[in-house]
Design brief:
By secondary structure, this protein is of the alpha/beta class. It has eight helices and ten strands. β2, α2 and β3 form a beta-alpha-beta unit. About 2% of the residues have low confidence. The structure holds 2-phosphoglycolic acid.
Length: 266
């Protein structure tokens, strides 16, 4: 696993978007794994800028998202489908039918999970997966203790998560108690993984994931044995790391991708 420490959240977001842009140029029909949460929003903003200003083309890109709440329709402002549409998909030229998000309103949630696994497999697997990390080291909704080989599954949300979410819901009966999530086993099959982390609140989770032994208690520590993972983190998130890591882009090749993108035909 590589670690790159960036001076700020903005720099981290640009670096992640640069990698995305390079990979999309190399493989226009790339299969992307996407995440919700606050952390990737800056990366998505930068991708939207590259689309608008440099014509970065998403017309053949296919995406699969990590997770979704059970019980929320795609039109619900707290659903992850709504989040992705607003923060990325509606602002780029991706085909909506190429964007896959688990259905939180499926009648048979187990069947929905199995069908999502099949869709990923028949698309050829995920080429590039972006991840956030929870302050407890979770990835997607795989909380501490989750088996490392689990596939896409239904999870009961921790009481603390349910309480954290309560403020977003006027009607308490709408607060989700379960979610659907890719399993750690599914995530580990992505050919390349970028984990993003920003802020002091993530510092302990990053140190435990990177510099301590792999443990079920810290789901992101499983990434230590993934052959092609980079943690792109800011200085606050790196503040509890003991070893030295490359700053900025010393460890990554960054061709000037922008010049290779065809100017947008307006
Ligand atoms: P955040 O969430 O990006 O909003 O911090 C990350 C996560 O919990 O996986």
């Amino acid at each position: 696993m590589k670690v790159i420490v960036c001076s700020s959240y903005e720099e981290l977001s640009k670096k992640a978007a640069e990698i995305f842009a390079q990979r999309i140029l190399q493989k226009p029909n790339i299969i992307l794994g996407l995440a919700t949460g606050g952390t990737p929003v800056g990366t998505y903003k930068e991708l939207i800028r590259l689309h608008n200003e440099h014509g970065l083309d998403f017309s053949q890109v296919v995406t699969f998202n990590l997770d979704e709440y059970v019980g929320l329709a795609p039109s619900h402002p707290q659903s992850y489908r709504y989040f992705m549409d607003k923060n990325l998909f509606d602002a780029i030229n991706i085909k909506k039918e190429n964007t896959h998000i688990l259905s939180g309103t499926a009648e048979d949630v187990e069947a929905e999970c199995a069908s999502f696994e099949e869709k990923i497999a028949s698309a050829g697997g995920i080429d590039l997966q972006v991840l956030g990390i929870g302050s407890n080291g979770h990835i997607a909704f795989n909380e501490p203790g989750t088996s490392r080989d689990c596939r896409t599954h239904v999870v009961n949300l921790a009481e603390s998560t349910i309480q954290d979410n309560a403020r977003f819901f006027d009607d308490p009966s709408e607060i989700p108690r379960q979610a659907l999530t890719l399993g750690i086993g599914t995530i580990m099959e992505a050919r390349e993984i970028i984990l993003l982390a920003s802020g002091q609140g993530k510092a302990q989770a990053i140190a435990r994931s990177v510099e301590r032994p792999i443990t079920l208690a810290v789901p992101a520590s499983a990434l230590q044995v993934h052959p092609n993972t980079v943690f792109i983190i800011d200085q606050d998130a790196a503040s509890q790391l003991k070893r030295e890591y490359p700053q900025h882009s010393q460890d990554l090749e960054m061709p000037s991708y922008a010049t290779k993108i065809q100017p947008k035909v307006l």
